[in-house]
Amino acid sequence: MLLHGFTGSADVWTLPLTGIGSTMTVIAPDLLGHGRTLANDDPARLTIQHAAADLIAVLDQMHIDRPVLHGYSMGGRLALYTALHYPERFTALSLESASPGLASPQERSARMAADDALAERITAHGVEAFVDYWEQTPLFRHQVDTAPEPVRLRQRVIRLSQRPAGLAASLRGMGTGSQPSLWEQLDRLRMPVQIMSGQLDAKFEAIADEMAHRIPRRRRVSVPYAGHAVHVEAPDSWRAALIEFIDFVSRPNA
Fold first, then answer.
1. Scanning 3, 85, 138, 251, which has the fewest C-beta atoms within 10 Å of its C-beta?
2. Parallel, antiparallel, or unpaired: how do β-strands 2-3 and 92-96 relate?
3. How far apart are the C-alpha atoms of 57 and 154, rounded to whole Å?
4. 111 near 99, Cβ under 8 Å?
5. What pTM value is reported for the model?
6. Number of structural domains found in the chain
7. What is the pLDDT of residues 163-216, one digit of tens each?
């Protein structure tokens, strides 16, 4: 089960998944506020708690039992929250450039204000102006050097297809500031966990290292020549790491 990041959709996995689909079942939902989801733009509906319950409802409806859960960035925060609150529903957890949130109330309050200001910017100026800004932030600016041009253009098309109200509601309902801190819960994870980040993404390399210190059954993967979006910038390495992890947790007594 693959969970995309902010401004993404299920379509972001098409190229990285090349060659995977014939060997396993892949579930890739559009998260609320993104892609083809219905236009419910109430931030109170787009909280991480509701989003996690939605994922369980999807698994129930599809009669899927204990998949491996992988999440990227915003989707990684959601994947971590879901695995902690519904541990019996997943075989293993894979996190890509994800965090357990912000530890202090002061940090969360400041981030909520920043997320709200960004949401206002999106609704006031539209998606294209926001995407132009977003692609120049430190998390994504180096993709000009790391990601092939067709891949970058596809990512831009996906971002431009979003609705302003949906993105704004997602920021307000499930932004990092709105998420409860999960740092003190990491040692509760008993399933195997893969923690992946790109070596060019110093911020999330440090977060991943700290998470690895706290999670009992973890596999730490640092991908060379990749930044925040490992599946975009180093799709072959991303795919190999994910398949290796799934193969490992599929073995008896893993």
1. 251
2. unpaired
3. 30
4. no
5. 0.96
6. 1
7. 999 999 999 999 999 999 999 999 999 999 999 999 999 999 999 999 999 999
- Sign of the torsion angle spanned by Cα atoms 73, 249, 28, 225: positive
CB-based contacts of 197, cutoff 8 Å, min separation 6? 96, 97, 204, 205, 207, 208, 221, 222, 223, 230
Look up the domain containing 206 and give its range: 2-250
CA dist 196 and 187 (Å) reads 18
**CA count, 13 A, side-chain hemisphere, 133:** 10
Residues 10/29, Cβ–Cβ less than 8 Å? yes
- Residues 98-122: tens digit of each pLDDT: 999 999 999 999 999 999 999 999 9
Q: What is the pLDDT of residue 215?
A: 98
Kindly give the residue spans of alpha helices, DSSP state H, lying in the chain: 48-62, 74-85, 105-125, 127-134, 143-146, 149-160, 164-174, 202-214, 230-233, 235-250
Give the integer Cα–Cα distance in Å for 48 and 3: 13
Cα 168 from chain centroid? 17
Query: d(Cα 121, Cα 49) in Å, to the nearest integer?
Result: 25
The answer to whether 71 and 80 are in contact (CB under 8 A) is yes
User: Residue 70 maps to which CATH number?
Assistant: 3.40.50.1820
